[in-house]
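Handoff note, outgoing to incoming analyst
You'll be picking up this chain. Sequence as last confirmed:
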Amino acid sequence: MKRILVVDDDIDILTVVKLVLESNEFEVAAISDWQKIFTQIETFHPDLILLDVSLGTQDGRNLCKQVKSNGDTKHISIILFSANHNVEKSVQECLANTFISKPFDINDLIEKINNQLMETNGFN
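Most recent structure output, in case you need it:
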């Protein structure tokens, strides 16, 4: 079972996304405190991180750069998501694998996650 770490400071979105992903056969850890991301990566070992860009006092793009710049975690796929559509242009700069805008269609989210996991595992 693939593991997904969801990081979003909006508890409602976090709860809905967690339920949707679990109902689609993913093992999910969901955190609202961005400061716990590296602890969660170390203990949960996610295959993919769904990371909000706007995390209150932190920009998810900075966290993405940190994850992708670390030799131990750079292999983890990261999908950034945001209600700010202008953010999509900066996805490559922070080394994220892809982007999805909020609000998102649940089927599109699942498809993007599955596609990213297949790419990561060399199935494309």
